[in-house]
Design brief:
single chain; Helix-turn-helix domain-containing protein; 434 Repressor (Amino-terminal Domain); globular; mainly alpha
Length: 72
């Protein structure tokens, strides 16, 4: 998963990092680290929550998979 791009897409839909962190059950610094690329892999519970949030906002997680990046 390209978390940096996924979080950017969520932000483009109007969610702040703080709102995203609150809903995902983690701290805003964890979201910031993912958004900046400092951290590449969140805890599984956070990752699943981020996927659900993105899907609710109309994102398709498959569009952000590592294999899509390799194919581009």
């Amino acid at each position: 998963m390209q978390w940096k791009n996924y979080i950017a897409a969520i932000a483009d839909r109007g969610m702040t990092q703080k709102q995203l962190a609150d809903e995902a059950g983690c701290g805003q610094p964890a979201i910031s680290d993912l958004a900046s690329g400092k951290t590449r892999d969140p805890r599984s519970s956070v990752g699943l929550a981020l996927i659900r949030i993105g899907q609710r906002l109309g994102l398709d997680p498959a569009d952000f998979s590592e294999s899509c990046r390799s194919a581009a």
